[in-house]
Protein backbone atom coordinates (compact mmCIF):
# COMPACT_ATOMS: atom_id res chain seq x y z
CA UNK A 1 0.00 0.00 0.00
CA UNK A 2 1.31 3.46 -0.90
CA UNK A 3 0.94 5.34 2.44
CA UNK A 4 0.84 8.77 0.73
CA UNK A 5 -2.03 7.97 -1.64
CA UNK A 6 -3.73 5.02 0.11
CA UNK A 7 -3.53 3.16 -3.22
CA UNK A 8 -2.13 -0.30 -3.87
CA UNK A 9 1.30 0.16 -5.46
CA UNK A 10 2.29 -1.68 -8.65
CA UNK A 11 4.09 -4.98 -8.15
CA UNK A 12 7.89 -4.83 -8.30
CA UNK A 13 8.22 -8.64 -8.53
CA UNK A 14 10.13 -10.11 -11.49
CA UNK A 15 8.72 -13.53 -12.41
CA UNK A 16 11.13 -16.45 -12.18
CA UNK A 17 11.71 -18.82 -15.16
CA UNK A 18 8.92 -17.11 -17.17
CA UNK A 19 9.71 -18.63 -20.57
CA UNK A 20 10.06 -22.12 -19.07
CA UNK A 21 6.65 -21.82 -17.38
CA UNK A 22 5.04 -20.66 -20.62
CA UNK A 23 6.75 -23.41 -22.65
CA UNK A 24 5.74 -26.34 -20.40
CA UNK A 25 2.20 -25.13 -19.77
CA UNK A 26 1.44 -24.03 -23.33
CA UNK A 27 2.44 -27.46 -24.67
CA UNK A 28 -0.67 -29.08 -23.13
CA UNK A 29 -2.94 -26.51 -24.86
CA UNK A 30 -4.83 -25.57 -21.67
CA UNK A 31 -8.12 -23.69 -21.39
CA UNK A 32 -8.35 -23.47 -17.60
CA UNK A 33 -5.18 -22.58 -15.71
CA UNK A 34 -4.83 -22.22 -11.94
CA UNK A 35 -2.00 -19.95 -10.82
CA UNK A 36 -1.83 -20.95 -7.14
CA UNK A 37 0.72 -18.29 -6.16
CA UNK A 38 -0.49 -15.21 -8.06
CA UNK A 39 1.89 -12.71 -6.36
CA UNK A 40 2.60 -9.90 -8.82
CA UNK A 41 0.61 -11.75 -11.50
CA UNK A 42 3.58 -12.06 -13.85
CA UNK A 43 3.11 -15.75 -14.70
CA UNK A 44 -0.66 -15.31 -15.00
CA UNK A 45 -0.31 -12.45 -17.49
CA UNK A 46 2.12 -14.41 -19.65
CA UNK A 47 -0.16 -17.45 -19.66
CA UNK A 48 -3.25 -15.35 -20.48
CA UNK A 49 -1.38 -13.97 -23.49
CA UNK A 50 -0.87 -17.51 -24.79
CA UNK A 51 -4.53 -18.54 -24.55
CA UNK A 52 -6.53 -18.29 -27.79
CA UNK A 53 -8.02 -14.78 -28.12
CA UNK A 54 -11.13 -14.37 -25.96
CA UNK A 55 -10.96 -17.97 -24.75
CA UNK A 56 -9.93 -19.76 -21.61
CA UNK A 57 -9.58 -18.75 -18.03
CA UNK A 58 -6.84 -18.10 -15.48
CA UNK A 59 -7.78 -18.49 -11.81
CA UNK A 60 -5.29 -16.90 -9.45
CA UNK A 61 -4.97 -17.57 -5.74
CA UNK A 62 -2.83 -15.86 -3.13
CA UNK A 63 -2.91 -15.88 0.66
CA UNK A 64 -1.79 -12.27 0.85
CA UNK A 65 -4.65 -9.72 1.13
CA UNK A 66 -2.31 -7.06 -0.35
CA UNK A 67 -2.37 -9.06 -3.62
CA UNK A 68 -6.19 -8.94 -3.79
CA UNK A 69 -6.15 -5.20 -3.08
CA UNK A 70 -3.67 -4.65 -5.91
CA UNK A 71 -5.67 -6.76 -8.37
CA UNK A 72 -8.89 -4.88 -7.48
CA UNK A 73 -7.15 -1.57 -8.19
CA UNK A 74 -5.85 -2.69 -11.61
CA UNK A 75 -7.73 -3.10 -14.85
CA UNK A 76 -7.20 -6.64 -16.05
CA UNK A 77 -8.17 -9.24 -18.59
CA UNK A 78 -11.80 -10.39 -18.02
CA UNK A 79 -10.55 -13.99 -18.33
CA UNK A 80 -8.68 -13.58 -15.03
CA UNK A 81 -10.23 -14.12 -11.57
CA UNK A 82 -8.10 -13.80 -8.45
CA UNK A 83 -9.19 -15.26 -5.11
CA UNK A 84 -7.81 -14.48 -1.67
CA UNK A 85 -6.86 -17.84 -0.15
CA UNK A 86 -4.38 -20.66 -0.05
CA UNK A 87 -3.62 -22.60 -3.22
CA UNK A 88 -4.94 -25.58 -1.28
CA UNK A 89 -8.38 -24.04 -1.95
CA UNK A 90 -7.99 -24.41 -5.74
CA UNK A 91 -10.88 -26.93 -6.04
CA UNK A 92 -13.16 -24.44 -4.21
CA UNK A 93 -12.08 -21.63 -6.51
CA UNK A 94 -12.83 -23.85 -9.52
CA UNK A 95 -16.24 -24.72 -8.07
CA UNK A 96 -16.97 -20.98 -7.57
CA UNK A 97 -16.37 -20.62 -11.33
CA UNK A 98 -18.63 -23.66 -11.96
CA UNK A 99 -15.63 -25.67 -13.16
CA UNK A 100 -14.76 -29.21 -12.06
CA UNK A 101 -11.18 -29.44 -13.26
CA UNK A 102 -8.22 -27.43 -14.50
CA UNK A 103 -5.83 -28.17 -17.37
CA UNK A 104 -2.81 -26.64 -15.69
CA UNK A 105 -1.61 -25.71 -12.21
CA UNK A 106 1.35 -23.43 -11.55
CA UNK A 107 3.03 -22.94 -8.19
CA UNK A 108 5.89 -20.48 -7.70
CA UNK A 109 6.65 -20.98 -4.03
CA UNK A 110 8.10 -18.65 -1.45
CA UNK A 111 7.65 -14.93 -1.21
CA UNK A 112 7.48 -12.09 -3.68
CA UNK A 113 9.73 -9.04 -3.92
CA UNK A 114 6.68 -6.96 -2.92
CA UNK A 115 6.46 -8.82 0.38
CA UNK A 116 10.22 -8.58 0.87
CA UNK A 117 10.09 -4.82 0.34
CA UNK A 118 7.27 -4.27 2.86
CA UNK A 119 9.00 -3.47 6.16
CA UNK A 120 5.84 -4.19 8.18
CA UNK A 121 5.98 -7.85 7.19
CA UNK A 122 9.38 -8.75 8.65
CA UNK A 123 10.50 -10.85 5.66
CA UNK A 124 13.72 -8.93 5.00
CA UNK A 125 16.29 -9.23 7.74
CA UNK A 126 18.16 -6.22 6.37
CA UNK A 127 15.31 -3.83 7.31
CA UNK A 128 13.99 -3.59 10.86
CA UNK A 129 10.28 -3.95 11.54
CA UNK A 130 7.86 -6.16 13.44
CA UNK A 131 8.78 -9.86 13.25
CA UNK A 132 5.60 -11.03 11.51
CA UNK A 133 6.50 -13.35 8.56
CA UNK A 134 2.90 -14.28 7.70
CA UNK A 135 1.77 -14.39 4.08
CA UNK A 136 -1.68 -13.54 5.43
CA UNK A 137 -1.31 -11.01 8.27
CA UNK A 138 -5.05 -11.25 8.98
CA UNK A 139 -4.88 -14.88 10.11
CA UNK A 140 -2.70 -16.96 12.42
CA UNK A 141 -0.07 -15.47 14.70
CA UNK A 142 3.01 -13.37 13.89
CA UNK A 143 6.41 -15.04 14.26
CA UNK A 144 7.15 -13.03 17.45
CA UNK A 145 4.02 -14.53 19.03
CA UNK A 146 4.83 -17.99 17.65
CA UNK A 147 8.20 -17.81 19.46
CA UNK A 148 6.52 -16.70 22.69
CA UNK A 149 4.01 -19.60 22.43
CA UNK A 150 6.58 -22.36 21.91
CA UNK A 151 9.03 -24.18 24.15
CA UNK A 152 12.78 -23.99 23.60
CA UNK A 153 12.92 -27.54 22.25
CA UNK A 154 10.14 -26.89 19.72
CA UNK A 155 11.81 -23.67 18.54
CA UNK A 156 15.13 -25.48 18.17
CA UNK A 157 13.51 -28.34 16.27
CA UNK A 158 11.70 -25.98 13.88
CA UNK A 159 14.90 -24.01 13.17
CA UNK A 160 16.79 -27.25 12.58
CA UNK A 161 14.11 -29.00 10.52
CA UNK A 162 12.88 -26.08 8.40
CA UNK A 163 16.12 -24.08 8.23
CA UNK A 164 18.66 -26.91 8.33
CA UNK A 165 20.50 -24.61 10.77
CA UNK A 166 23.24 -26.42 12.73
CA UNK A 167 23.20 -23.83 15.51
CA UNK A 168 19.45 -24.16 16.13
CA UNK A 169 19.82 -25.06 19.83
CA UNK A 170 21.97 -22.04 20.60
CA UNK A 171 19.55 -19.76 18.80
CA UNK A 172 16.50 -21.23 20.55
CA UNK A 173 18.22 -20.89 23.94
CA UNK A 174 19.02 -17.21 23.29
CA UNK A 175 15.43 -16.52 22.14
CA UNK A 176 13.94 -18.11 25.25
CA UNK A 177 16.45 -16.35 27.52
CA UNK A 178 15.33 -12.97 26.19
CA UNK A 179 11.75 -13.89 27.07
CA UNK A 180 12.81 -14.80 30.62
CA UNK A 181 14.60 -11.44 30.89
CA UNK A 182 11.33 -9.74 29.91
CA UNK A 183 12.83 -8.58 26.60
CA UNK A 184 10.99 -10.96 24.25
CA UNK A 185 11.98 -11.09 20.58
CA UNK A 186 9.58 -8.69 18.86
CA UNK A 187 11.42 -7.23 15.90
CA UNK A 188 13.52 -8.32 12.95
CA UNK A 189 16.60 -6.73 14.53
CA UNK A 190 16.02 -8.60 17.83
CA UNK A 191 16.26 -11.90 15.97
CA UNK A 192 19.07 -10.85 13.63
CA UNK A 193 21.16 -9.80 16.63
CA UNK A 194 20.67 -13.27 18.21
CA UNK A 195 21.60 -15.04 14.96
CA UNK A 196 24.73 -12.91 14.60
CA UNK A 197 25.82 -13.95 18.09
CA UNK A 198 24.95 -17.65 17.71
CA UNK A 199 25.97 -18.45 14.11
CA UNK A 200 29.63 -18.27 13.09
CA UNK A 201 30.18 -16.47 9.77
CA UNK A 202 30.05 -18.81 6.78
CA UNK A 203 33.39 -19.56 5.08
CA UNK A 204 33.05 -17.17 2.14
CA UNK A 205 30.56 -14.94 3.98
CA UNK A 206 28.05 -15.76 1.24
CA UNK A 207 25.16 -16.53 3.57
CA UNK A 208 23.82 -14.12 6.20
CA UNK A 209 23.76 -15.69 9.70
CA UNK A 210 20.00 -15.09 9.94
CA UNK A 211 19.05 -16.63 6.56
CA UNK A 212 18.26 -20.15 7.75
CA UNK A 213 16.46 -19.05 10.92
CA UNK A 214 14.19 -16.63 9.05
CA UNK A 215 13.40 -19.31 6.45
CA UNK A 216 12.55 -21.77 9.23
CA UNK A 217 10.26 -19.39 11.08
CA UNK A 218 8.49 -18.36 7.89
CA UNK A 219 7.84 -22.01 7.03
CA UNK A 220 6.58 -22.74 10.56
CA UNK A 221 4.34 -19.69 10.88
CA UNK A 222 2.73 -20.28 7.46
CA UNK A 223 2.62 -24.10 7.72
CA UNK A 224 4.19 -24.07 4.26
CA UNK A 225 5.40 -27.65 3.91
CA UNK A 226 2.20 -29.28 5.18
CA UNK A 227 0.09 -27.19 2.81
CA UNK A 228 2.35 -28.05 -0.13
CA UNK A 229 2.28 -31.77 0.71
CA UNK A 230 -1.53 -31.87 1.04
CA UNK A 231 -2.06 -29.82 -2.13
CA UNK A 232 0.20 -32.01 -4.28
CA UNK A 233 -1.51 -35.16 -2.97
CA UNK A 234 -4.93 -33.75 -3.92
CA UNK A 235 -4.00 -32.13 -7.25
CA UNK A 236 -4.43 -35.27 -9.43
CA UNK A 237 -8.09 -35.31 -8.30
CA UNK A 238 -8.85 -32.00 -10.03
CA UNK A 239 -6.29 -31.71 -12.85
CA UNK A 240 -7.73 -33.12 -16.06
CA UNK A 241 -6.08 -36.02 -17.92
CA UNK A 242 -3.31 -34.61 -20.13
CA UNK A 243 -3.15 -31.51 -17.91
CA UNK A 244 0.08 -30.31 -16.32
CA UNK A 245 1.50 -29.15 -13.04
CA UNK A 246 4.60 -26.95 -12.83
CA UNK A 247 6.21 -26.14 -9.49
CA UNK A 248 9.08 -23.72 -8.85
CA UNK A 249 10.70 -24.25 -5.46
CA UNK A 250 13.48 -22.31 -3.77
CA UNK A 251 14.99 -24.69 -1.24
CA UNK A 252 15.70 -28.37 -0.86
CA UNK A 253 12.86 -29.10 1.60
CA UNK A 254 10.25 -27.89 -0.89
CA UNK A 255 11.95 -29.53 -3.85
CA UNK A 256 12.05 -32.90 -2.06
CA UNK A 257 8.30 -32.72 -1.39
CA UNK A 258 7.59 -31.95 -5.07
CA UNK A 259 9.94 -34.69 -6.31
CA UNK A 260 8.42 -37.32 -3.99
CA UNK A 261 4.82 -36.31 -4.71
CA UNK A 262 5.39 -36.73 -8.47
CA UNK A 263 7.28 -40.01 -8.01
CA UNK A 264 4.85 -41.60 -5.55
CA UNK A 265 1.57 -41.11 -7.44
CA UNK A 266 1.27 -43.08 -10.67
CA UNK A 267 -1.30 -40.60 -11.97
CA UNK A 268 1.70 -38.31 -12.70
CA UNK A 269 3.96 -38.73 -15.70
CA UNK A 270 7.17 -36.89 -14.79
CA UNK A 271 8.30 -34.61 -17.64
CA UNK A 272 11.46 -33.23 -16.02
CA UNK A 273 13.63 -36.12 -14.80
CA UNK A 274 15.92 -33.58 -13.17
CA UNK A 275 14.74 -30.18 -11.98
CA UNK A 276 15.25 -27.36 -14.50
CA UNK A 277 17.34 -24.37 -13.42
CA UNK A 278 17.21 -20.74 -14.57
CA UNK A 279 19.70 -19.76 -17.28
CA UNK A 280 22.89 -17.87 -16.37
CA UNK A 281 21.41 -14.84 -18.11
CA UNK A 282 18.29 -14.97 -15.95
CA UNK A 283 20.32 -15.33 -12.74
CA UNK A 284 22.47 -12.35 -13.78
CA UNK A 285 19.38 -10.24 -14.51
CA UNK A 286 17.35 -11.46 -11.53
CA UNK A 287 19.59 -12.82 -8.75
CA UNK A 288 16.49 -13.85 -6.78
CA UNK A 289 16.06 -16.68 -9.31
CA UNK A 290 19.40 -18.31 -8.48
CA UNK A 291 18.07 -21.08 -6.22
CA UNK A 292 14.95 -21.83 -8.30
CA UNK A 293 14.18 -25.39 -9.39
CA UNK A 294 11.30 -26.19 -11.73
CA UNK A 295 9.64 -29.60 -11.91
CA UNK A 296 6.82 -30.43 -14.31
CA UNK A 297 4.50 -33.45 -14.49
CA UNK A 298 1.53 -34.44 -16.64
CA UNK A 299 -1.70 -35.92 -15.31
CA UNK A 300 -2.08 -39.35 -16.90
CA UNK A 301 -5.52 -39.74 -18.54
CA UNK A 302 -7.88 -42.08 -16.62
CA UNK A 303 -8.62 -45.33 -18.38
CA UNK A 304 -12.25 -46.43 -18.21
C1 LIG B 1 7.13 -15.97 -5.58
S1 LIG B 1 5.59 -15.19 -5.33
C2 LIG B 1 4.72 -15.54 -6.82
C3 LIG B 1 5.06 -14.62 -7.94
C4 LIG B 1 4.24 -14.82 -9.19
N1 LIG B 1 4.39 -16.13 -9.75
C5 LIG B 1 4.60 -13.80 -10.26
O1 LIG B 1 5.12 -14.17 -11.30
O2 LIG B 1 4.35 -12.62 -10.02
C6 LIG B 1 4.83 -16.29 -4.22
C7 LIG B 1 3.44 -15.86 -3.77
O3 LIG B 1 2.83 -17.01 -3.21
C8 LIG B 1 2.00 -16.60 -2.16
N2 LIG B 1 1.76 -17.78 -1.32
C9 LIG B 1 2.58 -18.41 -0.46
N3 LIG B 1 1.97 -19.48 0.07
C10 LIG B 1 0.74 -19.55 -0.48
C11 LIG B 1 -0.36 -20.44 -0.35
N4 LIG B 1 -0.33 -21.50 0.44
N5 LIG B 1 -1.45 -20.19 -1.10
C12 LIG B 1 -1.52 -19.12 -1.94
N6 LIG B 1 -0.51 -18.24 -2.08
C13 LIG B 1 0.61 -18.46 -1.37
C14 LIG B 1 2.76 -15.49 -1.49
O4 LIG B 1 1.87 -14.67 -0.77
C15 LIG B 1 3.39 -14.78 -2.70
O5 LIG B 1 2.58 -13.72 -3.13
From TrEMBL:
Q: What is its EC number?
A: 2.1.1.199
Kindly list the residue ranges recorded as spanning the membrane.
Answer: none
Q: Which GO molecular function annotations are given, in alphabetical order? A: rRNA (cytosine-N4-)-methyltransferase activity
Compartment(s) of residence: Cytoplasm
Among InterPro entries, the record links this protein to: RsmH, SAM-dep_MeTrfase_MraW_recog, SAM-dependent_MTases_sf
Question: What is the role of this chain?
Answer: Specifically methylates the N4 position of cytidine in position 1402 (C1402) of 16S rRNA.
**NCBIfam families in the record, alphabetically?**
16S rRNA (cytosine(1402)-N(4))-methyltransferase RsmH
Phylogenetic placement of the source organism: Bacteria, Pseudomonadati, Planctomycetota, Planctomycetia, Pirellulales
Q: To which protein family does this belong?
A: Belongs to the methyltransferase superfamily. RsmH family.
A Pfam family of the record is Methyltransf_5
HAMAP family attached to this UniProt entry:
16SrRNA_methyltr_H
Protein name in the entry: Ribosomal RNA small subunit methyltransferase H
